[in-house]
Each structure stands twice: as C-alpha cells, then as structure tokens.
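User: Can you fold this complex?
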Amino acid sequence: MSVTPADPGLAPDIDPAWLPDEALRAVGSRRVRVDGEGPLADTVRAEAAYACERFGGRIVGPGDRPDLLLRLADDSLGGEGGEGGEGGGSGGNGEDCPRHPEGFTLHRTLDRTTVTASAAAPAGLLHGYFHVVRLGEAAFTPAPAATHRPALTPRMLDHWDNVDVHPVMGQVERGYAGGSLFWRDGRPRDEPHRIRAYARLLASCGIDALAVNNVNVHATEARLLTDRLDDVAAIADLLRPYGIRTHLSVSCAAPVLLGGQATADPLDPHVRAWWRETADRVYARIPDFGGFVVKADSEGQPGPFAYGRSHADGANLLADALAPHGGIVHWRAFVYDHRQDWRDRTTDRARAAHDHFAPLDGEFRPNAILQVKHGPIDFQTREPVSPVIGAMPRTRIAVELQATQEYTGQQWHVCALAPMWSQVLRFRPHGEDGPGVAGVAAGDGGGRGGGGGLVAVSNAGADPFWTGHPLAQFNLYAFGRLAWQPDADPASLLDEWIELTFTPNRTADPDRLRAGLRHVVGGSWETYEKYTAPLGVGFMVQPGHHYGPSVDGYEYSPWGTYHFADRDGVGVDRSRATGTGYAAQYGKPWSDTYETPDTCPDELLLFFHHVPYGHVLRSGKTVIQHIYDTHFEGVTEAEAARALWASLKDLVSPARHARVTERYEEQVRCAREWRDQVNSYFLRKSGVPDRHGRRIH
Amino acid sequence: MSVTPADPGLAPDIDPAWLPDEALRAVGSRRVRVDGEGPLADTVRAEAAYACERFGGRIVGPGDRPDLLLRLADDSLGGEGGEGGEGGGSGGNGEDCPRHPEGFTLHRTLDRTTVTASAAAPAGLLHGYFHVVRLGEAAFTPAPAATHRPALTPRMLDHWDNVDVHPVMGQVERGYAGGSLFWRDGRPRDEPHRIRAYARLLASCGIDALAVNNVNVHATEARLLTDRLDDVAAIADLLRPYGIRTHLSVSCAAPVLLGGQATADPLDPHVRAWWRETADRVYARIPDFGGFVVKADSEGQPGPFAYGRSHADGANLLADALAPHGGIVHWRAFVYDHRQDWRDRTTDRARAAHDHFAPLDGEFRPNAILQVKHGPIDFQTREPVSPVIGAMPRTRIAVELQATQEYTGQQWHVCALAPMWSQVLRFRPHGEDGPGVAGVAAGDGGGRGGGGGLVAVSNAGADPFWTGHPLAQFNLYAFGRLAWQPDADPASLLDEWIELTFTPNRTADPDRLRAGLRHVVGGSWETYEKYTAPLGVGFMVQPGHHYGPSVDGYEYSPWGTYHFADRDGVGVDRSRATGTGYAAQYGKPWSDTYETPDTCPDELLLFFHHVPYGHVLRSGKTVIQHIYDTHFEGVTEAEAARALWASLKDLVSPARHARVTERYEEQVRCAREWRDQVNSYFLRKSGVPDRHGRRIH
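Assistant: Here's the predicted assembly.
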C-alpha cells in the first residue's frame, strides 16, 4: 500500500524536541494499518508512513495482518460504555471504542496479535497514534485493554504574540524563545513548515486549541478579526491537520475601533449585531474556528466597565455571537486595579478576581468560559490556588497556567513547572469531599454544564530549540499531558519526556542519562523557589521585565504586589481577623487553614501573614534563618545541577548540550545575585546574623 | 539708512523665552548706529533694525547722532588696558575697547549723550548689543564706563541629540523638551528658522559654542564626521551669524567604523593620518569648526584602553588633527566601571575620574581640554565638587554642568540650578588662597596655558517652550550668563531673566509678579533637594529613566551608586581612615574637612560618611528626623509654590501659565511620592518614629 509519508517539516537546525525520528522506532519498525477516512486519518496515515520509511516497517492494506491497527469505528460513537479513561483512573473495560470524540481504546492483550487503537472519531485516531508513539516498545507488550480520553477540553495554548513589534513588549509579550512562530514585524512569519511541525508536537502531547495572538490586543492585532482574517485562516489551515482549533484574542473595543460604531456597549443592539456579523464572517472563512479570548478591563484593555456593564454582559455578548457556530469565548478573570496606591493597605490585589467575578456566578452563557489564573496574583513561583476556582459552581471555569517562564527564570533557568501544576490541579477548594481544581475545569459538580478546560501561555517561539532553554520543552510537553490527564504523576511525565526526547537507550549509558536528567529537571522548581522570593511572598523581581532580583522593586509601586518588610518582620496579612480578608474568600477548610500562622502551610506563610523574623517554622527554623538557608541551598543546588549537566556531555547532542550549558552559566550567576541581594536585604533590615556565619554582603 | 530687520524666525506658537519683542523696547525706541562690517556686524544691525521697527526708533547713519552707538574699533584689539571685566569685578577703567575678541566697553557716562559700546572684534559687538538689551532702560542712564569680557571660553552647550531615534534613549538622550531641534528620525529636522532663533537666544545670554550630537555616538551619528558632514555644515551656517561655533561628538572607533582602518590605536601612524585627513576635510567644509567632543572608554563607548593607550594618547591624537585649524578637543573625564559588583565596598565610582586622569596631568596637548563633570558621580542634586578639577594644574579643564534635568525633575519639576552652579564655580579646591573652580576653567594658576571653559548639557529641544517646563528656560539662560561671569549673583540673574521674559512693567502688578517668580523659581533647588535623596547621598531614583523615587533602585546594581542603608544607619564611608579613601583625593583643607562627620558639611554628610540614624546634625536634629522633616517640608513648599503660581494667572500669558500649572500638578504628585517612599523606607528600616507624629505609611 502506498502512502505519502508526513514530512516533519523541520530544517536540520531545528530541534526535534520530543519527536526525534528515534522516538518513532517502535511504530516505524512494524506493519501498520490505518482504517478511516478524512483529513485527520490522512495525517495519521502519513505519520505512520514516515515512521515506517525511517525504520523499515510498512503501511499495510486490508489484506495484511498489521502489528498496529488504528481504526475509526464511528458506529460506536453513540454506544455505551467507555467510563474508564485516565482522568478517573486508567483501567479499561474492554469495550471497543470510547464515546469521546478525542478518545480511543487500546487493545494489546495477549490473545490478540495485533495492537489495536479504536477511536470513535478521527481526532481519537490521532491521539491514539501518538499514545502508541509515547509508549514505544511497551505498546507492543501485553496489557489490559484501556480506554483513554481527555479529562479536560479544550487543552489550549495562548500565544501572547504580537503582530507588530510592540515598543516595550516586543514581538512576543513575555516571550523568551526568539520571536513568534506566527508573526514577524507586522506580517505573517511565512514559515508554514515550522507551524506545521509545531502543531505536530502539540498534538502529540494532547493539545487541541491555540490562540494566535496576545490577550493585550493592540491596533494591528485587533484587525486580525476583520480585514486581516486571512492571516488567521492561513494559520488555522496549518493547525487543522493536527486536530488543533484556532482561537483569536479580540478587543472589546472592536466595534468602535474596527466597526465604526459609536459605542462598544455590550447591551447596545448595534454592537450585538456587529459582533454577530463579524463572527459569521469569521466562521465563513474558518468553519472550525474555536472562539475568542478576551482580556477586558484589565491593565488598560477596554471592557464593559466603561458602559456600566458587568463582565457577564461583556462575555455573553461575544458568547451569543459565537453560539450559532459552536464557538466559545474565554473571558479572563485577571481583573484588578493596576494603579493601586501602595500606601493603602486595605486594598488587596489578591482579592480582586473573586470580588469581581464570584457575584456573577450563574450569569454566564453556556459557551462563555471564565479563564482564571491558577493563583490570585500572577504566576508567581508559589501562590495559593485562586479562590475563584472554587467559588463559581454555576460557571464554566478554565484554569490558566503560564508555561512561558515570566517569573520563573525566563527560560534561562531550569524550572520544571509540572510539579507546581500538578499541585494546583489536585487542590480541592472545598476539602476532600469536593471536586479538585481539575474536576472544576472538567465541569464536575455544580450546575455549570461543562468544564472550561486548561489553558497555558505558550513558552514556544521561533528559537531553534522552540523554547529557548531546551529543558523548558518539558514544560510545554507536561502541560499538554496534564491537560489530558490531570492526575498524571509529574515524575512519570518527566520520564516519558526523557525517553522521547533523549532516547536514552540509544546512548552509551542510558541509566546515567536518565538519572542525570531526572535530577536536573525534576527538582528544579524547588531549587528556583529556594533562591528567589521566600515563603510565598512573591515578586521581588526587577520591575518591567521581571527577570532577576529587586527586593523592593515593586514595594512602592502601583501594582499591588508588596511584601511589607520592615526591621521587625515581613509578609502580607491577608487574614480575616486582622488583614485584608482575602483568606475568607476560600471555602472551608481553607479559609480556616490560611487564617492563622499556626495552620497556614509554611510555603505560603508570607503570602497570608506578616510575621516577625523570629517566627519559628515547622522546620524549627526561624523565618530569617530559613531565608538565609534556602538562599544558600538554592545556589548550591543550581551549581550542582550545572555540574551534573556538564557530566552528561557524552550522552547529549552537542548543540543541545552547548545551549543548556550556556543557560546554566547564566542561571548560576543570576541565582547568586538572588541569594546575595535577598540575604543582604534581610540582614540589613533585620540585623539578625546568619547562625552559620556565612558571608552576607 | 535702510537696513533689513532680523526676523526672529519664530512661528506664533513658539515661546519667545527671554527675547520677547517687549524686551527690545528700550533699544527699539531709540536711534541706533552700528559701525562695523562683516557678518556679525550685519547681524547686530539687523537685530537693531528689527527692534526699531517694532518700537519706533530707527537706524541712523554717520551723519546723525545716535542714542546708541555700537562700534567696531578693531585698531584697539592689540592695545593695552582692559583689565576690568566682570570675571574680576565689574569696574571699568575707561579705555575705549577691550582686547578680548568677545569683549566690549560700555560708555554711558553723564558727559556723553550717546551710549557707546565699543568692541575690538565683531563678536564683541554682538555681545555688547545683547548686553544693552538686557539692561533695557538702565542702559541709557548714567553709569561708570565698564569693560565686559567673558571670564570663560568656550561657553558651550552639548546636545545629547541622536540623529536616529535610539531604541532606548530616543531622539534626545536625557531630553525632556520634545525632540531635537536638529534631528528627526534619522534626518535633519529641517526647521532652519527654529535653529536660527535658538542661536539668537543662546548668543543673547553669552553662549558661543555648541556640539550638535550626543556624546554616545551611535552608528548613524558617527557618520556626521564624514559622509554626513553636510548636515553639520548646514547647522553651522545657521549658528554662525550669532557667533556660535559648531562642535561634533565623535567616536574613537571612527577610523575602523568609517575609515576602513584595521585599528583605532591612537599611536598608529595610519590612524593619525586618517584623523588628520578627516579633520582637514571637516575644516574645508566648515572653516570655523570648533572641534570634537569625546566620551571614551565610558559606559560602552570605545576608547584608547582597547589598545593599551592612555586617555592622553587618545585626546592628543585628536588634538593634533585639529591643531592646524585652531580646533580643540573636549575629552570627557567621565570614565568609571559601570559594571561594578555592588558587593565590593572597596570600589568607589566617585574615585574613578581622579584615579584615571590625575596621573596624566601635563600630558595633554594645549588644544586638548579635559571636560570634567562638576561632581564625582553624575549630576546629582547635591554632590561635592569633583576633586579632578583641583588636581591637574597643567591641564586645561572644562567644567561640565547639566542643564537638562536628568536627576532634578526632568523639567516637570521647577529646579533652578543657578544657585548650585554658582556654589560649584565659587568652590576653591585648594582653600581660600587658590583659584576657584571658575578660575581653573578660566586657566588661572598652574601651567595649563589656558582654560577649558564651561559646558552644559542642553535642556532645549523642539518643544514650543524650548525646555518643556517654561521656568526651565532660566537654567539655559543662567548657564550662559554664569559662563560669561561666574561670580554673578544667581538672584540677580533671576531678576534679569524675569525682567526679560515676563516684562513685569507691562503688567498690571509688576511687584507681585516679580515677587511671585522670585519665590517659585528662586528656592526651587532647595525644595527639590528636600523631598528627594537626603544629605548628599544621591540617586534613590527609578532605574533607567531616573525619574521619581526608588530608594533601593540602584542599591544592588552594577552602577556604583549606593547608599548602604541598614537598620542602624545610612551613607557611604568615603573617608581615608575607614572608607574608600575618596576624601583624600582632595587637597587641603577639603581632604581634612570631608574626612570626619564632625567637620563634613551636613548637606554632604551621607556622601562622605555612614552614620547612625541618631547622628546629630548641626541643626540639632538627628539624621532620621532630618529626613522626615525635610521630606514633609519639601512637599509643603512645592504645594505652596503651586498655589503661588496659580495666583499669578492674571499676570502671565495664558499658554505659559497653563503649561506651568500642568507641570506643577505632576511635581506635587511626584514630590508626595518621594516624601512617602523615602519616609516609609526609613521608618521601616530604622523603626524610629517621627517625633511630630505625622503619618508615615
């Protein structure tokens, strides 16, 4: 049987990330059949053909017995069964095919000589194929049949990419990966192979939606919705073969900016008509368009407040325009006063999203999703889970993560975020008896009628390694995998990624390579936390670009991000009893847990409480000694990771090794800067000497 | 007699600054004769004609008795006498004409019915004319004959203007006056009338030299020296009629960048030949070209260090190229390590210029001028006088001031700098018996064979008010006047400027206007100092743009600008005994005076010493109470100035009043921010309460 192999579409100098050809060996050395029609089935067939071409297998037709059969069984889409799935445990029940359009069932029991992935819809074929790729040889060993389907939908990447280079924020806002994959200097980047290869990587880890432009919608970007819609359609054409729907960030002021309307009032009939007609035109051009992403009344973006309307009014306006076409609006809950007076200790930015949105629960349309940052502030290294997530049972909630490392080392530092994300997704806002964050995003409980899925701000760009730091590829991969299966073990995902990306078995010392990578990546978040802002207090970064330390950098700013350190103590009192009352925004038991320093977890102590430097932590250390110790430890760990990486030189490709080595030099330099600035700052302020007498400047 | 009047060349929306037509009334209502030939005499004649056309006077010929005679008596240039002059007191000796080519003698004694200004050279005619304008009616009242000549030459403005818009620094580095008068978006601005009007303003206050581009010479700007020389010549043609010579900032790397040389080594014969040929070409195009300005081995600019050569080698290279044409090089002494480690308390940026340059005394060519910033750091609100100025008796020294208010409110705050500059110019580096700073710049004492003059970084730009803040015009005016007469009383200069600019006698209440302006401008430097960094410690500004407070903004930076505040005290120990040794760079008595807190002037205490918050100042207040008190006072004074300005609305032109009113709103807002951040910072750190119980956040 003759099939055109998929060309991965990469120039030789572009890193293959977790899809090097070597990762296709198990599939590619076998006889593969793909039963099904349509574009996605064609994609799978071409992928398999490419693998087989590389490793001696072949695509077989109906007459031959395949080793691997990927089959579309669309008659079973309406059937019963299929309650397994990884979101709720990975046990299967043997049915041939799941109901979820992206799901599939994998049969590899002893009594079958053909491993079979059955899907009810073409997207399930695609995810089934990449599941087999991830399993590698293990896919062809006996195991109970298992049905897999995504726990969360959509699994979406937001690209904060600008079309025009922004005078302050550049081509990609908070981008640390060498420019945009989609745009350059005001025009499409015009590298379709690169976008296609990106779509392939995303699909292979489970991502199925992508917003192509920054949530801060500037003048040029606003026009993507109308006269530059062709630019969006061109991207959608490249993402579609990998099952990824295209979304667009839009401006609430679009009716005025683009439509010549006198107002953008969500309740104005002309405005409503304009949005409906505009959405109609979008769908006429991009029939599978995903929907809109909106940042409104936030950090200078326009929104419904200008017209005395609520955020529900604003979101519903767009939801109604999208509804006839099956589109959704992701309406961001990141609304706060960014011109706060630092002198006013009663205003608390952490409270803002809950204050604004919780009262609106139940007012949003079924296709309006409230997109909530995982923490109440802004993607800090350590934050509590946003109380909004547990407070709106009648609203579809999407949880927003940040893969781009704005506050976590900007892809110069290794900081694997899967452990943090896993903690967030497992957090149970109402205690052990209620749904977890992942459950909320899945639509469990309450009357919300569906989940909002998981979203991450992408960390990928035109950099040859996609993410600047090659080890930051794991953050992109882990996001997709956790969105599919939120209860996945981060350590297992790391192993999975290591096997795919570094194919240790093809090296001289697989165990040393695996152990080394587990070490340098696995604990990197804790290491990063140690040498940066202590005990959940956050920020302490340099203003504007947010890289490197500045303990007081935001202390007297209008941004609402303070630590209130004085000569006696440090931290923000967010208790109900004596503070801002933020702790009371949580349901039980968390409102009680966070209320007092006695019960508040140490790692969040300074987020919730202002304590004396002599306050004793559960570790038995004082806060000030904890600050000193963790900052010395963090640098030691970063130095050790650098040395360990150096020792892997014989096992890693030269280009990748060199890039990571370069980044470690900067990480260690910057970690020392963090250590010394934070320690000096607190020694100068507290006057308490380090009990170990180490040098503090 | 028919003469073409000078057109001031201003569009109606451009502020006339200190040369409104009204300021010409005294001259313009009289009969005026100008005896002399050549372009400068023609300028004077045209100026007088313009004044007469406005106010009913007339230009008369040799047959008529004039009320004012401006005469060129070139036969007396070689004569004796003329030892008076304002630099050494304003008494005259009755001789007809001074020897200095810019000097003049004014006769307005009772026995002469014609007031006569006699000059030895055309430039003296020009300065004599504007002297009469400044005097107004007083010029026509009896007074002893007096000879006037500039104490300092050149009296130069450095424009930190970029040709291309710099991605960080913009069109004008540290410019707060609406773009460049000379350049726009990579090309000449092409507003010759504006440049001509600017030249007229400068000449009228005594300025005679101007550098047309930034001392940080970027790629495009470097080419002004060679293939874009025509752009410079066009400016020179506009400045020349007002007696102003044009200078150019050049890059030490020019032989490589522009000349295709393999090296820029100052001792390389090809490099020397290239500079000579390049200078020849410049003078062929601009015969009265002034010379070069150079920032070398400083903040990233190239310089002789790259070749193991000294700054004398670098300066002499250019001096030799210019010498055949009478040109001079201004070589800046602003050389320091801007990548310093903040942990290293032994390195002291304040020491750098002296460490680098004092050993080179005597090694510079006669036409090489060392241009020294007035303080050792960088134009702070309060600094000691640079020890370099008193340390190089065999070197021509120019003192560099900063009219553009980089650290003094960026022309949003009123901050009249004449009192500060006057203090600097009167400072005597070797005590009462040695020359003052002005004397050094004039060439007094030592074997330097000439002075280097006075330089200011210009605060003027394309703004309709020239300087952004209309009251900042006084800084430009006062610079020119102090350069001519360094011992002028700043208060008298302010009165002079008020009379010219606001012509109080033409208003309904001259005395109220004068008193109001004296108040809001006169004490503004002290007010600004009160609410910003205390007791000479400097900085505490926001990094990068330098506007507004950030107490720790530069504390952990590589820029060498620290205050070392901890819970016990604040300040930099620069003593010889226990500190960086900077105090020992001064001659006696200052090295002793600055050495101990007991003798160090309070206003410089924290520049020289780290003292406890409880240290008692001469005022009887502790340092911490002084910080609180001055910050409360500074804001109160700013608020009072704002109110006083508001009360002058009926006496000031609407446009000017509105602009200043707008600026006062921002000044008061920013002053409160300074007060609150500084006070909060030190309360949090010291724990010492305000003894008056005022609110500190």
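The first strand of chain A starts at residue 31 and ends at 35. Chain A touches chain B through 23 residues (CB under 8 Å).
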